[in-house]
Amino acid sequence: MKTIQILLLFISFTVSAQTAQTKVGTIDIDFVLSQMPEITNVQNAVEAYGKTLDADLSTKVEGYQKLVEEYTKNDVTYTINQRKTMQDSIINSETDINKYRQNATQLITIKRDEELAPLYKKIGESLEKVAKSQGYTQVMERNSNLVYIDNNFDLTIAVLKDMGIEVKEKE
Fold it and tell me: Which of 13, 14, 69, 156 has the highest local Cβ count within 10 Å?
C-alpha cells in the first residue's frame, strides 16, 4: 500500500514537472547600456571624476618633485638629522603617490558603478515587464559563456523598445 502511494506521488510529480514549461530568453545588457542616452552623462561624470583625481595626483607629484629638488640642491648643507628628515619626507611622499594611484583606479570603478546603478535598475524593471508579458520564466545575460543562443529568444531589442529607445536593426 505504501509502495503504491509513493508510486502515485512520483507520477504526480513527473506529470506536474512536464506541464510546467520553462521559457528561457537572453539579453545583451552591455548593448542596451550602449544604446541608452543616459550613458553619455555617466561617461561624462566618470571622466570629470577621473580628471579631479588626476589633478590631485599631479599636485602630489609636484610636491614630491619639489622635495627631491630641494633635497638634491641642499644635500651638502643638511645636518644628518635634516637629511634623514628630508629622506623620510621623500619616501612618505612617494608611498603616498603609489597608494593614491592604486586607490584612484578603485575609486573610478566605484564612481562608474554608482553612476550605472540607476541605468541597471531601469533595464531590470523593463526586462521584468517584457519577460512577464512574453511568458519567460528565466532570462540569461548574453555573453561568451553561452554555447548556443537562438536569436528568437533574445529580449534585447524588446527591452530597448519598452524603454523607448529606437535601434536600427541590421538587415
Answer: 156
Does 13 score more than 90 pLDDT? no
Which is the CATH superfamily of the domain at 23-162?
Skp domain (3.30.910.20)
Q: pTM of the predicted model, to two decimals?
A: 0.70
Q: Which of 111, 146, 115 is nearest to 36 (CA)?
A: 115
Quick: pLDDT tens for 89-147. 999 999 999 999 999 999 999 999 999 999 999 999 999 999 999 998 899 988 877 77
Q: Which residues of 149-171 are buried (b: 16+ CB within 10 A; e: fewer)?
A: eeeeebbbbbbbebbeeeeeeee
Sequence ranges of the domains in the chain: 23-162
